[in-house]
Design a protein that fits this description.
- By secondary structure, the protein is an all-alpha fold.
- The protein has eight helices and no strands.
- The longest helix has 34 residues.
């Protein structure tokens, strides 16, 4: 849903991408920084409500790196198949770490956390499988990575003032991610049917 907005943000941070290039940073290095921030955020989440603002700040830094590495790769013509693979792989580790941290910090119940984690991973898996079949999936579905990050960060901030807000956010993610998997599955089904009928 926010993929188009993400493209506009990437264009807006051209100056930062150029500055990163002048410093000698590569997209892969920024991707690595992103996973470090995500792991630190997950660690902060494990302490429960004590370090929520720190966890959110680190989560947002991780998200910023996710935007910056793509912008740097495109704007400075440093895209590569391995770079795309590495970025996607690290994003999955980041997602898993954040959900694990939230569950270990007892900020959500285990069954909702696991449902949200499974949905999150399957959203990415359905895109990978569809694109391997030649079907474009960008912007298909309600809960792409940008939406998931925003919901998690917003719910975490509200949790500082209202206990159980993060649990509510995880429930929303559990529902939306799995609905997105259904949306994408239907999209693939229709696209493949159309190809069969057109053949």
């Amino acid at each position: 849903m926010l993929t188009r907005f993400k493209a506009k943000v990437q264009s807006a941070i051209k100056t930062q991408a150029e500055a990163a290039d002048r410093l000698g940073l590569t997209p892969n290095v920024i991707s690595a920084l992103g996973i470090v921030f995500a792991l630190l955020s997950a660690l902060a989440y494990t302490s429960g409500r004590q370090n929520l603002l720190c966890a959110v700040a680190l989560l947002l830094f991780s998200g910023y790196c996710d935007v910056l590495d793509g912008a740097l790769a495109r704007l400075c013509q440093k895209t590569s198949p391995f770079g795309g693979f590495l970025d996607s792989l690290l994003d999955r580790y980041a997602d898993a770490a954040i959900y694990a941290g939230i569950m270990l910090g007892k900020l959500c119940t285990l069954h909702w956390g696991l449902t949200a984690l499974a949905g999150s991973l399957l959203v990415s898996y359905t895109r990978a499988r569809a694109e391997a079949a030649g079907i474009k999936m960008e912007s298909i579905g309600w809960a792409e990575r940008a939406e998931r990050l925003i919901i998690t960060a917003a719910a975490s901030i509200v949790e500082v003032f209202w206990k159980s807000a993060l649990e509510a956010g995880i429930i929303v993610l559990a529902v939306l991610t799995n609905l997105t998997v259904i949306q994408r599955s239907l999209h693939v089904y229709k696209a493949l049917k159309k190809e069969e009928n057109g053949a």
